[in-house]
Design goal:
single chain; about 240 residues; alpha/beta; 7 helices; 7 strands; about 45% helix
Length: about 240
């Protein structure tokens, strides 16, 4: 049985990823930071639809200790894929942000995913094939004013992936980044309708991405046949900012 853990499974993109992977035959851990009820409901719905697969909700606050991260990984059943779909931002000028906010964005988007990767590696490389996919951002390649910290974390994922993929390539573990542009999720719901329309007008494809526009590429990278693609950042932006 092939099993993946999807971090941030209750988010807009995370939900689409879980649906696509379940449809492709994957059993899943559905991770949440705090909303366990949502992860549990999603797991039950997938179990009804795919009764021959396992769907297990799990909770882990990324603002936790190294010991808790280690215990979390040690309590998992074997997985051969990890998808990091969690992510937060803090919109505004750097000078107006609290140091604690800066630390939180760095921790959730970059530091803890790297630590979890280190902890998951021994499990992953035991499998016949294994995959890691991080959710990056177009802003990892084109830094965004008023999201300087967020942009730096996504750029960090790209460079980490490029380097780490070379370390593990001989083990059949591939490591890649899917970098969306503007996606129709709660993260962008903070902006006014006028602002979002201005963004749409800038996108050659003429619309924001939907969750399944992103999840398709995650599913593709998790396919066994994708083994020669590693260390890459793939931009899914509708032609915007690339």
């Amino acid at each position: 049985m092939k099993r993946a853990i999807v971090f941030g499974a209750t988010g807009g993109i995370g939900q689409a990823i879980c649906n696509d992977l379940a449809d492709a035959g994957w059993s899943l851990y559905l991770h949440c930071n705090s909303n366990f009820d949502a992860a549990n409901i999603a797991s039950q719905e997938l179990m009804k639809k795919y009764p021959n697969q396992d769907f297990i909700p799990v909770k882990l606050n990324f603002a936790t200790s190294d010991e808790e991260l280690t215990n979390f990984v040690n309590n998992l059943l074997p997985v051969n894929a990890a998808v990091f779909a969690q992510g937060i931002t803090k919109y505004g000028f750097l000078n107006d942000q609290k140091l604690s906010d800066i630390e939180k964005v760095m921790q959730v988007n970059l530091t803890v995913p790297v630590k979890l990767t280190k902890l998951l590696e021994p499990m992953l490389i035991k499998q016949n094939f294994s995959r890691i996919v991080y959710l990056g951002s177009v802003y990892g390649g084109q830094g965004s004013a008023l999201e300087a910290v967020y942009s730096s974390t996504k750029a960090g994922l790209t460079r980490f992936t490029q380097a780490y993929a070379r370390e593990v390539a001989s083990t059949n573990l591939t490591v890649n980044v899917i970098a969306p542009g503007a996606v129709n999720t709660e993260m962008n719901a903070m902006f006014s309708k006028e602002t979002l329309q201005e963004v749409r007008d800038e996108i050659p494809a003429g619309r924001l991405a939907e969750g399944n526009d992103i999840s398709f590429w995650v599913k593709t990278l998790l396919d066994k046949r994708s083994g020669y693609c590693t260390g890459q950042t793939i931009y899914i932006t509708g032609g915007w900012l690339v």
